[in-house]
Amino acid sequence: MKLTRCGIKDLRNIKDAEIEFSDGLNLIRGNNAQGKTTVLEAVYIFARGRSFRTNKEAEFISFDSDTSEISIEYEDAHRKNVMSAHYSKDENRKLYKNGIQIKKTSEFIGNFRAVLFTPDHLSLIKSAASDRRLFLDVALSQITPSYINRVKTYNNLLTQRNALLKDKRAESDDMRLLFESVAEQMAPAAAAITVMRRRYCSMLDEYVSSYFEQMTDGAEKTQTVYESCVSDDPDILSDQAEVERLYISKFTENLSREIYMKTSLYGPQKDDIDIKLNGYSSRRFCSQGQQRSLAIALKLAEGDISRDRTGEYPVYLLDDISGELDSKRNGFFMSKLGSRQIIITSCNMKSNKKFDRVITMKNGEAKY
Ligand SMILES: Nc1ncnc2c1ncn2[C@@H]1O[C@H](COP(=O)(O)OP(=O)(O)O)[C@@H](O)[C@H]1O
Ligand SMILES: [Mg+2]
Prior knowledge:
six-stranded mixed β-sheet, 368 residues, alpha/beta, 45% helix, six-stranded antiparallel β-sheet, binds magnesium ion
C-alpha cells in the first residue's frame, strides 16, 4: 500500500496544503506546533475512520472555519484510489471513495490501511486495559470488516443493558424476561468479538516473540495471551458456539450483583491482552525498557499481520517516536521496517540522504 498524496483544508492550523509522499522513507520536520502531527492525523482518519486525537470532529476543524476537507490518494495492489472526508461544524461528516459516498463506517475502514505509532503507544503495555483493547479494535477493524459491525451491535446492546440495570424496576419479573432476551442478543456478538480478538492475539504471539527474542538476543521469551472473562482455555476461546453459551450464562447468572452494581460486569469490554515475559506478566513486572521493546514488537507485528491478511504492508505513520527511543531500539525498529512506506515526524531530526522525501511544516504550510 502506497500513499501518494494528502490534501488538507482547514484542519487545525493547516489552511490549505497539498502534500506528496514518496515510496520509502518520508520525513515531516519542523518546530513544535507547526502542523506535523496534524498531517498524520489527517492521513490516519482514512485508516481508522476517525481522528486519533479527538472524538469530537468539531474540535479539529480550524477555529476560523465551519468546514474541513481532507483527501488522500493511494495505490493498493489493484489500482489508484482517492478517498475524501468532509466535516462541518453543523452537519454530519461525509465520506467518499473514488467519488462515491460511503455511508457505513465498516465500508470506509479497511480500504486504506496504516499503522500509527505515537509516544503514547510506548506505554501501551502498562497503560489502562482500554488502551490495549483499542489497539486490538483498531488493528482488527482494518483487516476484518465484519469486526466493526459486531462491535457496533454489541456496544448498542451493552448501552441498553446498562440502562436497564439502573432501572428502579430491574428486579421485577417482566424485566428478568427482558434481561434474558438482551443476553441472547448480546451473546453472539460478544462471542464473535472474543474469538476474533483471541485469534488476533495468537497471531501477535508468534511475531512479538520473534521480534522480542531478536531484541534481547534470545534472553527473554514472550507469550501473548488474550484474557477473556469467560475462559482462559485457548481451545474454548476458538469455539464460537461454546463461547456464546458461556456468555449467556455469564449474562444471566450474575444479574443480581449487576443490578446492585448498576452496570454490566462481564463481556469483551472487560477483557485485556497480557504479554508474559519469561512467564511473568509484563503489565505488572516489566521495566520501562522492556515496555518500549514490547511496544515496538507489537507495532511491527500489527503490520505483519495486516500484510498476511491483505497481501500488502500498511503505511507506517510514526509521530515523533525516534526522540523517545534510544538509538539501539530505534535502529532495530527502523531496520525491521525495511522498505515499507514510512511517514515520520520529528522536530530535531536532521534531513540527511537517507530520506526519500523531506517535507517541512511551518505555520501550517508544507514546503519541500
Ligand atoms: N481547531 C484548531 N484550529 C486552529 N488551530 C488548532 C486547532 N487545534 C489545534 N490547533 C493548533 O494547531 C497547531 C499544530 O499542532 P500539531 O499538528 O500538533 O503540531 P506539531 O505536531 O508540529 O507540533 C498547534 O499550534 C495547535 O495549537
Ligand atoms: Mg506533534
